[in-house]
Inverse folding.
């Protein structure tokens, strides 16, 4: 495992450096604006290193674990679809509906792989919903330095402790690749994930989460929602509030709670670290409560999501105090 982690860490490090050089040469830059949380033109597309790492991992694991070859093939194909449309969007903005169609296709491929592997139609439907949902959640939440990659890395590392076999190795590869990307993205970003990276890691987290659910009893499988709380609450409640206000919710914006908080602090890194601490707490509770009864697990989830929602609401109420400028 040490060699495996070192390999994917190296792919993340070298791949991100190469992606940044390419983005600078190709003028793939995110420029500051009212819908952005940065104040300097920054290269994008660095997440292609993570995509490359995961594709190589899936191919190798397909040879090592023949019983998981179908699932890994569907995962890799779906990942290539999500990463591919994200890469195109990083070069030339695509319609939101084209991107969504690609995400739906990738979700269908992953769900098909789950069905062929586990023969559970409910798990397959849940996998499809999770795949499309988390692909877009990570895209929505990739708005400040280090946030999306640290969340993915922490969750993937915890999943690697939970699972075994090919999925454990795949989760470890994702955690290591995110670790290799972060030096160029945190505490001050020299390159962004881009749509190629944010969507791909959200899709990968969904695939790994479905594997967690497949191997557990129904009650304990819900615990996978604990470490996802920070992203699910911020993205879903922000989306709902924008829809209620009649805004064009599918357009880029800077209205998430993490962005409001970053503007208030005039810095990204404290917010990223705070979200990381919250997610680590969720991961610890997940591992600690996995053998508890259904009622206890249900109450724990409700309490955790209520606490997360209250903090989201607290940050919204402070939005009017946030200064308009921000320093990354």
């Amino acid at each position: 495992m040490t060699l495996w982690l070192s390999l994917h860490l190296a792919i993340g490090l070298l791949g991100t450096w190469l992606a940044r050089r390419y983005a600078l040469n190709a003028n793939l830059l995110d420029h500051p604006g009212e819908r952005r949380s940065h104040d300097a033109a920054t290269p994008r597309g660095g997440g292609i290193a993570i995509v490359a790492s995961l594709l190589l991992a899936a191919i190798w694991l397909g040879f090592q674990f023949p019983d998981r070859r179908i699932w890994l093939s569907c995962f890799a194909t779906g990942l290539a679809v999500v990463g591919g449309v994200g890469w195109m969007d990083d070069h030339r903005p695509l319609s939101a509906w084209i991107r969504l169609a690609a995400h739906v296709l990738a979700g269908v491929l992953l769900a098909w792989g789950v069905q062929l592997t586990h023969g559970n139609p409910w798990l397959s439907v849940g996998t499809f919903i999770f795949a499309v949902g988390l692909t877009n959640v990570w895209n929505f939440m990739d708005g400040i330095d280090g946030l999306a990659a640290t969340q993915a890395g922490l969750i993937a590392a915890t999943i690697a402790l939970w699972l075994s076999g090919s999925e454990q190795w795949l989760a470890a590869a994702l955690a290591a690749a995110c670790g290799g990307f972060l030096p160029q993205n945190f505490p001050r970003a020299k390159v962004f994930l881009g749509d190629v990276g944010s969507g791909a890691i959200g899709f990968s987290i969904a695939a790994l989460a479905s594997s967690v659910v497949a191997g557990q009893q129904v009650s304990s499988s819900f615990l996978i929602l604990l470490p996802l709380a920070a992203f699910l609450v911020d993205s879903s409640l922000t989306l709902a509030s924008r829809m209620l206000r009649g805004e064009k919710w599918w357009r880029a914006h800077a209205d998430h709670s993490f962005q409001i908080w970053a503007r208030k602090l005039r810095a990204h890194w404290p917010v990223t670290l705070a979200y990381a601490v919250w997610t680590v707490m969720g991961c610890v509770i997940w591992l600690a409560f996995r053998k508890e009864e259904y009622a206890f697990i249900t109450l724990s989830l409700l309490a955790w999501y209520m606490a997360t929602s209250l903090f989201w609401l607290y940050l919204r109420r402070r939005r009017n105090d946030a200064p308009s400028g921000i320093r990354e």
Summary: Strands lie at 29-30, 42-43.
